[in-house]
Amino acid sequence: MPEGPSIVILRELIEPLHLEGKEILAVSGNTTIDKDRMLHQQVIAVKSWGKHFLICFEKFNLRIHFMMFGSYRINEHKDTPARLSLFFKNAELNFYTCSLKYIEGKIDLSYDWSADVMAEEWDPKRALKKVRSYPDSLICDILLDQQIFSGVGNIIKNEVLYRVGVQPLSKIHAIPLSKLKLIITEARQYSFDFLEWKKAFTLKKHWLVNTRKICPLGHPLKKEYSGKTKRRTFYCLICQKLYL
User: What global pTM score does this model have?
Assistant: First the structure.
């Protein structure tokens, strides 16, 4: 599943097309939503919120979620059928194996931009307040809560927890305040590191624990499917402390 930085890359690739104010001249694809609703509509903005890519129109918005295996092509297409294709005068967007949904009204009424770890509006104090409102939850679950850490996915979760030295099965109420603040800081910092490495095609080279068997200090890593979501987790029993 693409994490927040990958969706930011998509947004940045589309921004030079200057689609704002441009009309959709044709639509196609095997989606079950009413795709013709977008025909002859003008794009107001393109945005990203966490793992969601958003195409905004005057009265509604299209939310694109790439799930586990979604992909896209800009000004080109794959041989496989597209879920949705949008055609402009001098541009073409094709989306594959993704979930599409309309969001009615103004987009700001549906999204809390302060929860997006890569947004200018990101609010770490508000994030801390939300985190502490779930004292009995596991930190591995909280980091994947998109209403608190929009854009954080499994890779970022694993790497951040190793960076700060906290085991994923630690409970929020037991984690020291200073550690919670550090987790929040690193969730944003690692997201921007992820973005830089992803653009340079070196992301996997920088992983400290994700998919690894040995941590940077030479200790064997534990692999399990943790928390309510049972997402794949890698951590070090020695370098990371368990807070219960």
Answer: 0.92
